[in-house]
């Protein structure tokens, strides 16, 4: 049994290492050809550094796939899957480990017979270069069924360290993460600030609270009870806890990469529309961040 890793970036590589450490065989699916048979990764955790060797294959030449971990950015999911769909066995085990929502339904539709799980993690990791991983936090991971799944976790996940928590309601976990990302990510991109500055600056804090109020209108209309406290209290707490972080959306913009806005605020706005709820601030942010993404993409292509 081999876990193929589609989206062997920061979080995909971290979970490839965790699966390998738990005794599974892994195979990274890469776009860039490598000179060696093994992909070398140095994982830094605080002062500790460990080297790992991970087997890889070109994504276009993957062998038959029975176990697939998808950890691309949300907008890349379907394009990445296109290049190997014919090699995914009909009854494969597939885990989606990504932020955002919307792509999960699309993958379930594309592989109706597959056993599909979603995982949500608060682990934090980034890749300063192709062979280095810096783990900022070990995080907490939840995994749960989306389609055709037996009650137990997919093979290799129950022996992983730290162990993921199994949940019967991964949809709720996805919404918890989505709500937090909807609040923090677009605002840090708008103000080009670190997470903590959304709460330390009184004007930004007021906008953040207004945004949380809008998001909660949707989650309440869907009958979701996300946290013991209000969303605003939860978001303020997380922004304070991660005060020095640049959110993933701001980081993508600064690196002139596409953002996940369509799968975060975009998904929320789609849900609101279906519920006949108007979200002026979220809609404004969706437009703003999409425009910023286009501008940074053009700048990257040298069109400005
Ligand atoms: N990093 C983190 O700490 C966390 C990230 N997440 C979420 O996890 C997901 C992944 O994030 P992250 O790991 O940071 O992102 P990265 O950009 O580091 O990794 C994404 C990877 O996907 C690969 N990819 C994209 N398109 C294809 C394709 N067509 N075929 C094969 N590979 C492809 C990229 O390959 P290439 O290298 O060739 O560009 C890249 O290595 C996102 O949804 C993010 O929000 C969630 C929690 C924490
Ligand atoms: C929780 C938060 C906002 C931490 O930075 C995050 O998940 C992200 O940046 O995508």
UniProtKB/TrEMBL annotation:
Residues 3-147 form the Ketopantoate reductase N-terminal domain. GO terms for cellular component: cytoplasm. Signal peptide: none annotated. InterPro entries: 6-PGluconate_DH-like_C_sf (IPR008927), 6PGD_dom2 (IPR013328), ApbA (IPR003710), Ketopantoate_reductase (IPR050838), KPA_reductase (IPR013752), KPR_N (IPR013332), NAD(P)-bd_dom_sf (IPR036291). GO terms for molecular function: 2-dehydropantoate 2-reductase activity; NADP binding. Residues 169-292 form the Ketopantoate reductase C-terminal domain. It is an enzyme of class 1 (oxidoreductase). Gene3D superfamilies: N-(1-d-carboxylethyl)-l-norvaline Dehydrogenase, domain 2 (1.10.1040.10), NAD(P)-binding Rossmann-like Domain (3.40.50.720). It comes from the Bacteria. Pathway: Cofactor biosynthesis; (R)-pantothenate biosynthesis; (R)-pantoate from 3-methyl-2-oxobutanoate: step 2/2. Its EC number is 1.1.1.169. Catalyzes the NADPH-dependent reduction of ketopantoate into pantoic acid. Belongs to the ketopantoate reductase family. This is 2-dehydropantoate 2-reductase. It comes from Nitrincola lacisaponensis. The lineage of its organism: Bacteria, Pseudomonadati, Pseudomonadota, Gammaproteobacteria, Oceanospirillales.
